[in-house]
Amino acid sequence: ANPMEVTRTTVSFESALPNKKGESFEDANVRKAFQLLAGIGSMVATYHRVRNGRRPVKPDSQFGHAGNFLYLLTAKKPDEYSEWAYDKVSILYADHEMNASTFALRVTCSTLADIGGAVTSAIAALAGPLHGGANQMAMEMMEKIGSVRNVESFLDAELAAGNKIMGFGHRVYRTDDPRALILKDIARKFAEKDAETRKWLEIAERTEAVMWEKRKIKPNIEFYAGVVLKALGVPNDVMPAIFACNRIAGWVAHYFEQAADNRIIRPVSEYVGPVEQPYVPIDQRS
To answer: Which of these, 94, 121, 222, 252, is most buried using a 10 Å CB contact count?
Structure first.
């Protein structure tokens, strides 16, 4: 199964466990919040190992949250820079105001659903390729391009066909996405020591230049996130779940903020279809 789908289902299952004796709804939500904050990374890393026939790895107390995720995923103790780099990825993914998944979470929370249900809603929204799935698709696009020499012809063909170039454009940023700039610098550091990362970075930077020249669009966080996560040993299909592993911090904060001053979120829609349609009896309909 897709790691993001497994994460969504595991979060839902864990949150469905009965409350402790005498535990209030509010206290249960706080307990579940800590479990989710600590556990989603372990869920993702452990599932990846199990699906590949490998034994799960126990956390190592010498590492922090970032270092242990990499260790649980790869069974290799990360070097200092890799741990630092993933910590920065975690911070950059932690929250980003009212995006699609956070809005889904707050809508669910506003109905007085528990935190597990709200986070499950958020992960379902995050799984879409226009939200959390873009890092994987951006990396797969670079693999398809294969070489710096192919960048411009590939983009010309995709743009002519009306296809979206994943990892570019943002609903908020009209110039540089500051998160992308940070990740690009991290990727450059990896590229100094690793030839494969250098290859992906060169393709990424050429893609960025061509997209700016042809469409005046800048990359978003997902574009260079793919290069950094690849350098850290994260498989392509696990990349979207990395988003969930770290956005959980923002989701938890938004959940409790919504709950503290709650009013059900019920947007009003406006009907724009045809009016005064003639009624056609069922037996006369085609």
So the answer is: 222
Residues 140 and 255 in one domain: no
pTM value surpassing 0.70 = yes
Q: Residue 173: is it exposed, middle or buried by C-beta count within 10 angstroms (0-12/13-18/19+)?
A: middle
- The whole-angstrom separation of Cα 96 and Cα 81 is 25
Please indicate, yes or no, if residue 266 is contained in any of the structural domains: no
DSSP 3-state of 52 = coil
The residues that bridge with 168 in the sheet, in sequence order, are: 219
C-alpha to C-alpha distances, 225 to 71, 113, 182, 185, 250, nearest whole angstrom: 19, 32, 10, 11, 18
Q: From 252, 244, 263, 260, select the one nearest 31 (Cα to Cα).
A: 252
pLDDT, one tens digit per residue, over 134-178 is 999 999 999 999 999 999 999 999 999 999 999 998 777 778 899
Residue 160 maps to which CATH number?
Answer: 1.10.230.10
Query: Phi-psi region for residue 228, left (φ > 0), alpha (ψ -120 to 50) or beta?
Result: alpha
